[in-house]
Amino acid sequence: MGDHLAALLDPLANGTALSFNGVNVSYRELRALADRAARTLDRLPPERPVALAVGKSPEAVAVVLACWASGRPFLLPPADLGTDARAALHRQAGCASVLRADLSVERTESDEAPELAGVGPMLTTSGSTGLPKIVPLPRTAVDAFTDWAADAFGVDEGTVVFNYAPLNFDLCLLDVWTTLRRGGQVVLVDQDRALDSRYLLRAFAGADVEVVQAVPLFFRRLLENADGVFPTVREVVHTGDAMPPGLLARLPAVFPKARLRNVYGCTETNDSLIHDSDPTSDQPTPVGSPIDGVLVRVDAGELLVSTPFQAGRYLDADLADRWVELDGRTYFRTGDLVRQDERGVLHLDGRADHQVKVRGVRTNPQQVEQALLAHPEVADAVVLAIPDEEAGYRLHALVRPAGNTRPNSLSLRSHCARLLPRTAIPSTVELFGAEFPRTSTGKVDRKKLLAERV
């Protein structure tokens, strides 16, 4: 992307680059913001990566673009990460400075910078099992991805793309960076208002959006108040979490001209699989088939992928066992359990590290969730594995009812009994009236739900 930055921010360009809270920013104005940020970067210690402490705004986008233009690797952690964890990541990445969107600078204690030749952004994993892992993405990998994404979703000059994800999330490689590279317009969601359904509807309806990629949470929020259709949308991409069949079934009514697709990927590999979603199906949407240039393997049920867009490592060399060399290609062990149907399409069965033993039988709570989502009175479901002295673990299901329904525990457990082994039937079912708590990337915060019930 850095090689294309001069064309991307042509000083003569007058088209709209960004829309944020009702204000449009032209490419010319974005270039001026990026130039200011670049002058600040020039005053920082040379040949050292920089940590960014930015939320989401035109100024934040300009800071990232300045890093691209300078060729300097940059760490982009979650904006809501705790101070101790953030400091640990700064040290690990060798960042001597922290740069904010207002261009203020903070010096930080750092270790010696690791080898980062050719690296652009350093993103992080969710950190659900401890300190987030730093994923250094090669610039060539990002260039390859933006080329693919622009062609796959028809992003070109003037294309309006809606961006829901935080800037530190890998979804922005499509939403923001592919769009800007091709001269499109990015509609930025204010991250502080990302759960406000009325705000989201105003932001979405206020632009002639053509492409939208988001986690299911966004589509649920948008549909809470939408009373019309969005005829300009031609690509609806859902990703990041399982799309409930009931929610998917509602999308064609508001996006009558859109192609619905599910995209699967990891921060470590970027997008790997794609699938045309069937809104008439009551079954979970498959994760799909490999996109161009991607190779996949299934080893004891675990999905391994090799993509042109991937990092080849974590920054912490002690975590190298997730990458394996097979037949001259580097594969990443995703930790996701999949099965392949007769057409070669891959279906997600859950996470290898989420499996627990219930009365001695290995059980995957996410398979139980998929069974619950197939019930017509269930809008969303989370299944928690709660330690139990006798059974090892017991399964506790949290269910958000669909519409005004009120499913009872017996009917839901009977429904699961028709689809699952006996040990996979939830011991208890709890109706959950509110939206499930979410992480900064829009996924269900299972740690918080579990902590409240143990």
Write the layout of secondary structure elements.
Blueprint lengths: L4 H4 L7 E5 L2 E4 H16 L7 E4 L4 H13 L3 E2 L7 H11 L3 E4 L4 E3 L11 E6 L9 E5 H15 L6 E4 L8 H10 L3 E4 L8 H9 L5 E4 L1 H10 L9 E5 L5 H10 L4 E8 L3 E7 L12 E2 L4 E5 L2 E5 L16 E4 L2 E12 L5 E6 L4 E3 L2 E3 L1 H9 L4 E11 L3 E10 L7 H11 L8 E4 L14 H6 L3
Parallel strand pairs: 1-10, 3-4, 3-5, 4-7, 9-10, 9-11, 11-12, 12-13, 24-25
Antiparallel strand pairs: 1-2, 5-6, 7-8, 13-14, 14-15, 16-17, 17-19, 18-19, 19-20, 21-22, 23-24
Helix pairs in contact: 2-3, 5-6, 7-8, 8-9
Strand order in the sheet with the most strands? 2-1-10-9-11-12-13-14-15
Structural class by sheet pairing and helices: alpha/beta
Principal-axes geometry comes out as globular
Which percent band covers the strand fraction?
A: 25-35%
How many structural domains can be distinguished in the coordinates? 2
CA gyration radius, whole angstroms? 22 Å
- Give the strand tally: 25
